[in-house]
Amino acid sequence: MTPPRLVPLLAQFDFARTRLADRLSGPVMDSGDGTDTKVGPITDEEYLWEPVPDCWSIRRHADGPGSRAAFLAGAGDWGRDAAAYPHPWPPPFTTIAWRLSHVTEMLTLRADHTAGTRTLTRDDYRAKGTAAGAVTGFDTAATAWRNALLSVDEAALDTVGYCTYPHGGDAEEPFIEIAWWVNQELLHHGAEIALLRDLYRSGR
User: Fold this and answer.
1) Parts of the chain with a pLDDT under 70
2) Can you tell me the distance from the alpha carbon of 79 to that of 62, in angstroms, rounded to the nearest whole number?
3) What is the rounded CA–CA span in Å between residue 147 and residue 29?
4) What is the pLDDT of residues 29-47, one digit of tens each?
5) Angle at 151 between CA 136 and CA 109, to 5 degrees
6) Which of 126, 147, 154, 169 could form a disulfide with 76 if both were Cys (CB 3.0 to 4.6 A apart)?
C-alpha cells in the first residue's frame, strides 16, 4: 500500500505531470477553470526558441556552449548549457528546451537513485534535440519517478539520504522532503514552460 503521507504528494505530482504533458502535446489542456482549451503540439522551432539574447538552451556538443555557459552537460549529440557554482548572475534566461531537459534529467536521475542502479550522473543523461523526443523523454522520466515513489514504505519516507541523487540536498533530507521538492520543481518549471508557449504563440 502507498504510505498515507505520500498519497497527497503523489496526487499533486500526477496533477502537475498531466498539466505539463497536456500543455506540451494537446490536443486540449485544462484552461484552469475546468474547461478544455485547444493547444497544438510543441514544434522544434518553439522548443528551441530564444526569446531574448544570450539564452541558455540545449545545443549540439559540436557547436559548444552558449553565452556565459562553461560547458554543455550530458552525453550524446546534445547538451544543456551549464556552469559550475557559483552560477552566472543575473541568471541566464532559459528556453523551453533547457527547462524541459532540466526537469526530465532530474526525474530520470532521482528515479535511478531511489529505485534503480543509484549510479547515473548528469554526464549520463542525453538531452533531446527535438520537441517530440523531449516530450517522450519527459513521459518516460515521469513514469520512472512515479514508480520509484510507489516503491517506498513508511520507513523510507523518514530515511535521510534514502535517495542518493548527487546533485541536490538528498543526502541531508528525509525522502518525504525530496518527494515534495520534486513536485515543486515540476510545478514551477511547468508553469514557466506554459508561459513561454503563450509568449511564443502571441509573438507569432
Assistant:
1) 204
2) 10
3) 25
4) 887 777 888 999 999 999 9
5) 45
6) 126
Q: What integer pLDDT is reported at residue 70 of this predicted model?
A: 97
Indicate the SS3 state at residue 56: strand
Q: Is the dihedral of CA 185, 77, 128, 115 positive or negative?
A: negative
Could you count the other beta carbons within 10 Å of the beta carbon of residue 131? 21
How far apart CA 15 and CA 4 sit, in angstroms, is 18
Question: Full-prediction pTM beyond 0.90?
Answer: yes
Alpha helices by DSSP H, listed for the chain, are 7-25, 44-47, 96-115, 131-150, 154-157, 175-203
What is the SS3 assignment for 55?
Answer: coil
Instruction: Return the pLDDT at 50.
Output: 97
Establish whether the linkage from the previous residue to 92 is cis, with ω within 30° of 0.
Answer: no
Instruction: Please report which helix (H) or strand (E) contains residue 30, including its range.
Output: strand 28-30
- pLDDT the model gives residue 193: 97
